[in-house]
Write a structure and sequence with these properties.
- The chain is of the alpha/beta class.
- The protein has two domains: 256 residues, Rossmann fold (3-Layer(aba) Sandwich), CATH 3.40.50; 120 residues, no CATH class.
- The chain is 39% helix and 15% strand.
- The protein has 16 helices and ten strands.
- The strands form two sheets. Strands 2-3-4-1-5-6-7 form a seven-stranded mixed beta sheet, sandwiched between helices. A three-stranded antiparallel beta sheet has the order 8-9-10, with no helix packed on it.
- Helix 2 crosses helix 4, helix 8 packs antiparallel against helix 9 and helix 12 packs across helix 15.
- The two termini are 45 Å apart.
Amino acid sequence: MIIGDIADGVLRRAERVGAAVTGLAEPSVRLGVTGLSRAGKTVFITSLVANLLDRGRMPGLAAAADGSIRAAWLQPQPDDTLPRFAFEDHLAAMTGPDPRWPESTRAISELRVSLRVQSAGLIGGLRGLRTVHVDIVDYPGEWLLDLGLMGRDYATWAGDTLARIRDRPEAAAYGALLEQTDPAQRLDERRAQALAEAFTAYLQAARAAGWSDCTPGRFLLPGDLAGSPVLTFAPVPGTDFSRGSLGREMARRFDAYKRQVVTPFFRDHFSRIERQAVLVDVLGAIHAGPPAVEDMRRAMAEILGAFRPGRNAWLTRLLPGRKVERILFAATRADHLHHTQHSRLAAITAALLDDARRRADFAGAKTTAMAIASLRATTEDTVEHGGAPLPVVRGVLQDSGRRAALHAGDLPDDPALLLAPARAGQARWLDGDWDVMRFAPQAGSLRPGSGPPHIRLDRAAQFLLGDRL
């Protein structure tokens, strides 16, 4: 068995080296698109690919603006074990006669976009046409949260989780069941299942309420693991449990979850990413209040702590475990704000993720923060309010189908005015309130030669991919 494992490991490394050597002739960029639930990952990938294929709305991507990209097409993804990202289905949903938002990501998938590039200048002319592959990996945002579990033991995770959810109404039923449970007693499988089911119900309710810290992520999207022991655990108080006790078995299953579920995902997919787009629904968190903002800051810090930021020398492309060279922190749904507030939203995003951004900068990675809308669902307008002009955005509400105008509220110039109350544990905003609406995609948003309308998606593509084109 050990010899077989060694041989298998050597073979996998040899295959990676062979693929990397081939990639020196036709280079590829592996782009990860991450973010928590409802951050807009599927829409981002769909719109990015559509706008790479038809580049009429991409003036901020230098290789598109100067004509260096001569052609773009979709090819089979390099990993035959992964499903193909359903690009055509998602694009049809977003831009069809009855436009709607596509279904959220429920499993891992991949898509390869190949670009035929003729670099500008004398050297570019001598090199001739070359092909650059962009491999985009999509996976559920819930799985990201599990990366923060890799460096923690069960007692630490359970203690932190119970302290954090103690006063949340969504956790009341789980708390009541936990009060009737003695973790030091001998394992009762029915009690373990009841705790896991109650904790899963809490996670579902917490996600619906806007909380970000919904781990373990596979409890929300179990797939073929549903009902297995590796998903039948929950946080219980205590640190020193005897053999055969409920608490000891909970700790063992937590370790099995990290080893059998989280580690393979990190090893096979996450650790191979070179460029990273981190999508954050900052407006949704602000609307939910200071606790949600602080919860998002803490959750994103844990997720980003799993990255290996830095620069990849050419030789490292022959080896597994690449570093993330560029990280984009993108606040989505910028189309819910008038453009005069976009710079404030970007500044709040940068401050919200400041710890992770500083770590990445120090390691040699390039980072930036911006406010984007992968698919623009609104138009800007100005209305009269209280005798003064008020900038608004207009769109069609997703639930009712009626047209509405929205002024979400004025974001502060100084991000500390939001982040300080959040870190201090303030229950609600004292000096302001911010509204959100769910707008549907606009009908007739496509035109020949152009992808879907967006806000700054071209600049995001330039940051993430421009140097390779």
